[in-house]
């Protein structure tokens, strides 16, 4: 016997009439005077109320016809699906009220598929609800726990099996087996872990602005790079940038030719993901940071477009307030204050790219980013 | 002990057992095939057992079914999609039938997704069914989880299944994210960009981790095939394995049931698999599939062609993840920047790591251990197969509602930009509202829920104590009128009194009778305090003695007019309170 064999209080069930007197006296429920039990007794299952179809054959036949109609709708749906599949062109559009112009194949095939499925579903459920037996059935539960005999047999089998293998008597086997089992996954773990990809090395702290390809293992040598319009890949004259304008910029040599798609970085997306820059021109009197003025050119300033939070492109520039807003998590940077964070979850300002103009009047970088662009990582300050 | 004898509940009604019919010709034919199989497998016994297995009926038990069916629909449509999808980041130029993107450079993954949408007949509807079913899957399993939590279905012996369910819920989210990222469009690519940022902030190993996952610098060409392998092979295999264990345990432990007349902790009252549940549950699969197909036919989801191929430089405004990722994304929007620390040249970005790396596992760990905490607090070692009505566990229900409120605050915070645009409000104000709300709203939700539960319990008591109205008006010799109330408990009120009375655990004396300090005292103190937190203001069900007392003191003198009876009733209520406090 175990604890679950004792029924919980309140689980006694009365017999039939709903006013049963069955109280388990062995549980000591009866209190004080009058023999009033401590708990009410379960009145037992309510009487079964027959349905229309149980009593009236005409109602049952009606239900049969309803079920058959639903299954019929399903058959019709499938046939319509097949007809539409061959009839409707994949690029045809159709006007559906409330939705507008939409793909005819999508609407037609989807609706007829739904018809063929819902017909079966509603038919089967209606059948079950109207015609199949609706008298509730009672099944007994047993405690989940196995009997004590079964439990002790398992313990006995295991201990006897262990003893007969002599593992306890022969520690040499025990420890070498333990060591072998502990070590064997290492081979597999190192195979997969060691071959997943290149190690980062310095590449998270480098960009194309350092002078060229900045992937793992590549240490570019710095040379001044022109700021190129993205995606036109045209150099930018300082005089073409009006106050209030904003330009997407990539370093010289990164982008392929926009017409022929040739040239450019070998790992284009990887380089773009780090090198993207926003170029803005402000009235120099509005810029409150001397460093920002010094690193810019006559109010033209260049900042990394990669958010210092989790690396989304900082895509929204408010011309009036000179705020940059990241659309992913709403970090807000103030361009007049060296792009420091004025709201949102980012901590660090956007790194500034130091620029000037070359002999031909084109904007050009004078040094790479002085810190890693994009989201933080453990060793970024190293 | 007495389980071998027939229980009274088993023979409560005539005609519970179906009459034996002679086997028909068709049955004999089936018997021939089945006999061939049984000769080789011995399947007759388990199949016969399963076919007459009883399941209780309740609408809320269908929530888990919806989750199960949505998952199966995802498996079916997902298999279809693999026939056309190319999981490659290889570069290609689009030349398909969607004119606006012709000649645009893109990945093979994005191109094949466009082909599925525009060049394969019915491909779009299959893709939309796959996405809608995935969303439905996670909605249904979440609401299913609420049902299990609020009814206490996670109690012994079902703790293991609760833990399995929590793992399933977490895996479903990861599976959803992996699938969402596969098309390599601008929106999902931005999601992967953010994911790379999250991983990169892991203390010490972040940059190695992100280079390992992406096979080098972000985005690289490895992430699409790797996500594909996770999405179609690794995670589904674990999902299906755990799901099989989940459903297997439901069979072994038998489904819980709501309390009601004739339903006890030792029986299951419901309908057998054959034929009722075979028809109802089988039919329900087709209904779920049909409804999702209808939604997919009429409501567009994730129009990847509108976003364009992924490029790390541009971005779409209003970037939103699928709804189930909303709470983690919302957490990232709420966490303030000052949680990033710089020391000795190292950077610790708790403003990201807490929301992106800690929150998700934390939520599911807290969920997973809840049954064990509650069992420790209540000291309840019994098996529970009868569900709690949520009002009868006010503290648990209130904890659940507080948790849901916190989750909802996070989730809505992920839409702060959309709200700011649609409502014309300041995004900073909205963010601050959520930041404060995260700390203020859950306790309010806790308190309100608990008060509502206690009030509902009191109303249940009042209903029972009021007694059954006999409709007999009695006039006393003194000329007063009152209605006679019958003492018996009406059958439909059984559900109001069936649950266990509860009271806080009593703290044992600090020292035993010999004056020796008991070692486990501090732990017991915590436990007693938690027990008071759960049960100190419990409203317990009416007992027969209370009902009898109410009749003696209250209703027999309940006048149809006049205030006297009301006073007496209040008096008897006070007596109840006194008794409970005692």
Automatic annotation (TrEMBL), chain A:
Membrane topology summary: Multi-pass membrane protein
Localisation: Cell membrane
Transmembrane segments: 67-87, 107-128, 172-193
Keyword RNA-binding attributed: no
Domain annotation Rieske: ranges: 274-364
Protein keywords: 2Fe-2S, Cell membrane, Disulfide bond, Electron transport, Iron, Iron-sulfur, Membrane, Metal-binding, Oxidoreductase, Respiratory chain, Transmembrane, Transmembrane helix, Transport
Signal peptide annotation: none
Alphabetical list of CDD domains matching this protein: Rieske (cd03467)
Alphabetized Pfam families for the sequence: QcrA_N, Rieske
SUPFAM superfamilies: ISP domain
Organism domain of life: Bacteria
Record's keyword annotation contains Metal-binding: yes
Reported function: Iron-sulfur subunit of the cytochrome bc1 complex, an essential component of the respiratory electron transport chain required for ATP synthesis. The bc1 complex catalyzes the oxidation of menaquinol and the reduction of cytochrome c in the respiratory chain. The bc1 complex operates through a Q-cycle mechanism that couples electron transfer to generation of the proton gradient that drives ATP synthesis.
Family per record: Belongs to the Rieske iron-sulfur protein family.
Protein's name in the database: Cytochrome bc1 complex Rieske iron-sulfur subunit
UniProtKB/TrEMBL annotation, chain B:
The organism's place on the tree of life at top rank: Bacteria
Cofactor(s) needed: heme
Key words, A-Z: Membrane, Transmembrane, Transmembrane helix
Biased composition (Basic and acidic residues): 564-582
Residues annotated as domain Cytochrome b/b6 N-terminal region profile: 33-259
Region Disordered, residue ranges: 1-23, 556-582
Pfam families: Cytochrom_B_N_2
Record field: transmembrane: 66-86, 132-150, 162-182, 194-214, 234-252, 284-305, 343-373, 393-412, 432-449
EC number: 7.1.1.8
Catalysed reactions, as listed in the record: a quinol + 2 Fe(III)-[cytochrome c](out) = a quinone + 2 Fe(II)-[cytochrome c](out) + 2 H(+)(out)
InterPro entries assigned to the protein according to its UniProt record, in alphabetical order: Cyt_b/b6_N, Cytb/b6-like_sf, Di-haem_cyt_TM
The keyword Transmembrane belongs to this UniProt entry's keyword annotation: yes
Protein name (Swiss-Prot/TrEMBL): Cytochrome bc1 complex cytochrome b subunit
Source organism of this protein record: Phycicoccus sonneratiae
């Amino acid at each position: 016997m175990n604890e679950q064999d004792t029924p919980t209080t309140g689980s006694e069930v009365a017999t039939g009439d709903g006013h049963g007197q069955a109280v388990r006296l062995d549980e000591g429920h009866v209190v004080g005077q009058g023999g009033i039990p401590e708990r009410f007794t379960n009145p037992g299952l309510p009487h079964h109320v027959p349905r229309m179809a149980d009593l009236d054959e005409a109602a049952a036949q009606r239900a049969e016809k309803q079920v058959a109609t639903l299954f019929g709708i399903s058959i019709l749906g499938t046939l319509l699906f097949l007809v539409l599949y061959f009839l409707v062109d994949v690029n045809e559009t159709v006007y559906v009220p409330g939705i507008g112009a939409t793909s005819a194949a999508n609407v037609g095939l989807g609706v007829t598929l739904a018809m063929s499925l819902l017909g079966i579903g509603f038919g089967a459920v209606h059948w079950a609800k109207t015609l199949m037996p609706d008298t509730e059935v009672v099944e007994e539960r047993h405690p989940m726990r196995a009997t004590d005999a079964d439990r002790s047999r398992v313990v006995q089998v295991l201990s006897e099996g262990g003893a007969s293998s002599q593992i306890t008597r022969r520690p040499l086997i025990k420890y070498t087996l333990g060591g072998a089992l502990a070590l064997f996954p290492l081979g597999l773990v190192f195979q997969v872990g060691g071959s997943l990809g290149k190690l980062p090395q310095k590449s998270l702290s480098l960009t194309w602005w350092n002078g060229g390809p900045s992937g793992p293992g590549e240490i570019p040598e710095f040379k001044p790079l022109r700021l190129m319009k993205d995606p036109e890949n045209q150099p930018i004259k300082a005089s073409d940038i009006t106050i209030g304008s904003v330009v997407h910029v990539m370093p010289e040599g990164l982008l392929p030719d926009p017409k022929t798609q040739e040239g450019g970085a070998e790992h284009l997306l990887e380089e773009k993901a780090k090198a993207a820059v926003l170029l803005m021109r402000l009235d120099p009197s509005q810029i409150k940071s001397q460093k920002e003025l010094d690193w810019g050119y006559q109010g033209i300033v260049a900042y990394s477009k990669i958010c210092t939070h989790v690396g989304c492109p900082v895509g929204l520039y408010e011309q009036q307030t000179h705020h940059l807003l990241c659309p992913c998590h709403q970090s807000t940077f103030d361009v007049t204050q060296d792009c420091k964070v004025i709201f949102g979850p980012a901590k660090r300002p956007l790194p500034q790219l130091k620029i000037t103009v070359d002999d031909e009047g084109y904007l050009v970088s004078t040094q790479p980013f002085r810190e890693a662009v994009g989201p933080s990582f453990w060793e970024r300050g190293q | 002990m007495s389980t071998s004898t027939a229980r009274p509940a088993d023979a409560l009604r005539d005609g519970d057992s179906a009459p034996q019919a002679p086997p028909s010709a068709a049955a004999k034919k089936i018997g021939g095939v089945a006999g061939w199989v049984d000769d080789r497998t011995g399947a007759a016994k388990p199949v016969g057992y399963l076919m007459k297995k009883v399941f209780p009926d309740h609408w809320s038990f269908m929530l888990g079914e919806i989750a199960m069916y949505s998952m199966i629909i995802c498996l079916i449509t997902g298999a279809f999609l693999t026939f056309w999808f190319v999981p490659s980041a290889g570069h290609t130029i689009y030349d398909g039938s969607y004119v606006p993107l012709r000649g645009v450079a893109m990945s093979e993954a994005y191109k094949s997704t466009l082909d599925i949408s525009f060049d394969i007949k019915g491909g779009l509807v299959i893709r939309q069914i796959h996405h809608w079913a995935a969303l439905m899957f996670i909605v249904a399993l979440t609401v299913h989880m609420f049902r299990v939590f609020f009814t206490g279905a996670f109690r012994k012996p079902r703790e293991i299944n609760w833990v399995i369910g929590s793992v399933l819920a977490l895996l479903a989210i990861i599976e959803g994210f992996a699938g969402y990222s596969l098309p390599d469009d601008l929106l999902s690519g931005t999601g992967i960009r953010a994911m790379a940022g999250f991983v990169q902030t892991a203390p010490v190993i972040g940059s190695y981790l992100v280079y390992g996952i992406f096979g080098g610098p972000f985005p690289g060409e490895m992430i699409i095939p790797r996500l594909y392998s996770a999405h179609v092979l690794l995670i589904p295999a674990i999902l299906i394995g755990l799901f099989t264990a989940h459903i297997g345990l439901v069979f072994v432990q038998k489904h819980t049931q709501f309390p009601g007349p004739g339903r006890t902790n030792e029986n299951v009252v419901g309908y057998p698999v054959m034929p009722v549940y075979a028809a109802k549950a089988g039919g329900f699969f087709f209904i779920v599939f049909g409804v999702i197909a209808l939604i997919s036919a009429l409501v567009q989801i994730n129009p990847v062609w509108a976003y364009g191929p992924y490029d790390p430089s541009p971005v779409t405004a209003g970037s939103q993840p699928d709804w189930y990722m909303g709470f983690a994304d919302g957490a990232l929007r709420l966490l303030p920047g000052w949680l990033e620390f710089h020391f000795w040249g190292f950077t610790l970005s708790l403003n990201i790591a807490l929301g992106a790396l800690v929150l998700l596992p934390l939520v599911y760990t807290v969920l997973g251990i809840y049954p064990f905490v509650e069992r420790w607090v209540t000291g309840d070692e019994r098996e529970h197969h009868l569900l709690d009505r949520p009002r009868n566990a006010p503290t648990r229900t209130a904890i659940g509602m507080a948790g849901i409120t916190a989750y909802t605050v996070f989730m809505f915070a992920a839409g702060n930009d959309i709200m700011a645009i649609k409502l014309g409000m300041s995004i900073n104000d909205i963010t601050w509202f959520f930041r404060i709300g995260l700390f203020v709203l859950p306790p309010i939700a806790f308190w309100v829920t608990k008060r509502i539960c206690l009030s509902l319990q009191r109303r249940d008591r009042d209903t029972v104590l009021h007694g059954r109205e006999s409709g007999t008006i009695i006039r006393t010799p003194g000329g007063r009128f009152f209605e006679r109330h019958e003492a018996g408990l009406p059958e439909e009120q059984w559900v109001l009194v069936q649950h266990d009375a509860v009271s806080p655990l009593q703290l044992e004396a600090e020292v035993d009778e010999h004056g020796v300090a008991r070692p486990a005292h501090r732990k017991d103190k915590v436990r007693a305090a938690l027990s008071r937190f759960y049960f100190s203001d419990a409203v317990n069900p009416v007992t027969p003695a209370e009902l009898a007392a109410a009749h003696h003191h209250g209703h027999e003198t309940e006048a149809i007019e006049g205030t006297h009876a009301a006073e007496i009733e209040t008096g008897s209520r006070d007596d109840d309170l006194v008794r409970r406090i005692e």
